Amino acid sequence: MKIENETLTGERAEYFSADKEYIASTFKDGESPLKHARNISVTDSKFEYKYPLWNTENVSVENTTFEELSRSGLWYVKNMSIKNSRIVAPKEFRRSSGIYLENVVFENAGETFWSCSGIKLKNVKAAGDYFAMNSQDFYAEDFTLDGNYFLDGGKNIEVYNSILNSKDAFWNCENVTVYNSRIVGEYLGWNSKNLKFVNCTIESNQGLCYIDGLVLENCTLVNTDLAFEYCSNISATVNSRIESVKNPVSGKITAAEIGTLILNPKRCNPSATKIECEKIGRIFSQDPNPNEN
To answer: Model's pTM, two decimal places?
Structure first.
């Protein structure tokens, strides 16, 4: 059944809708217009009010705008695709699974994709903090993020050809692989397990610390200092200068140059980490900051 060029108003305007196509329609002035919908498509349309697609299943959306007041609009969703669309509203996607987004812009992605699984993003741009917190089975390609605390608590993550401007990205994570990407932000990857970066450029104050199972393959570290503190099982090949390395626990670090190397025997076993480097500027056997001893 097709519904075309309609303005749908009132609370739960199309409650429990099934097997319908909505074309060039506007949903306004009423909460939860498509709550519990099944097997529907929405094209060339607009959502203007709260909670438009809660508890839905098998939904496709294309060339559609989610306006600012349609906040918290995509919760408890199963199997949804959104293409060529603009999402202005914050707090979209909670406890949802099977989500595919392509050519989508999130203008305010704060608190979006919380506790979700089975997420695939392709050519998506997002701005906002706490994107994809506690989510798992996350895949992103050609993804651009401007927002802090990306994927805090995430598991089973793959990111390709992306740009992440994010303080505290990949905290408390497990099983993360990032390829051919640029990451800028303080404290990258803390308190995580099994993080792998391949052909990446990383700029991070005190980045890559408190990690068990850290792999860097052919990476460039720009303005990155106090790296690898309390990291164990490191396998790092860095093709650039590292400003400073501090108290790694175990593994191997290969770099073009290290500005300052700190190996405090009170904090780590200096012989447990093999360091291969053509040039090391300064070596300290205690932390230069006496308050850290």
So the answer is: 0.95
267: Cβ contacts below 8 Å, ≥ 6 apart? 230, 247, 287
Give the integer Cα–Cα distance in Å for 178 and 175: 10
| CA distances (Å), origin 41, targets 25, 49, 99, 187 | 11, 18, 14, 42
Determine whether 289 is exposed, middle or buried from the number of CB atoms within 10 Å of its CB (0-12, 13-18, 19+): exposed
pLDDT one digit per residue (tens) for the chain, 293 residues: 999 999 999 999 999 999 999 999 999 999 999 999 999 999 999 999 999 999 999 999 999 999 999 999 999 999 999 999 999 999 999 999 999 999 999 999 999 999 999 999 999 999 999 999 999 999 999 999 999 999 999 999 999 999 999 999 999 999 999 999 999 999 999 999 999 999 999 999 999 999 999 999 999 999 999 999 999 999 999 999 999 999 999 999 999 999 999 999 999 999 999 999 989 999 888 877 755 54
The two beta strands, 144-146 and 97-106, are unpaired
3-state secondary structure of 6: coil
CB atoms within 10 A of CB 201: 16
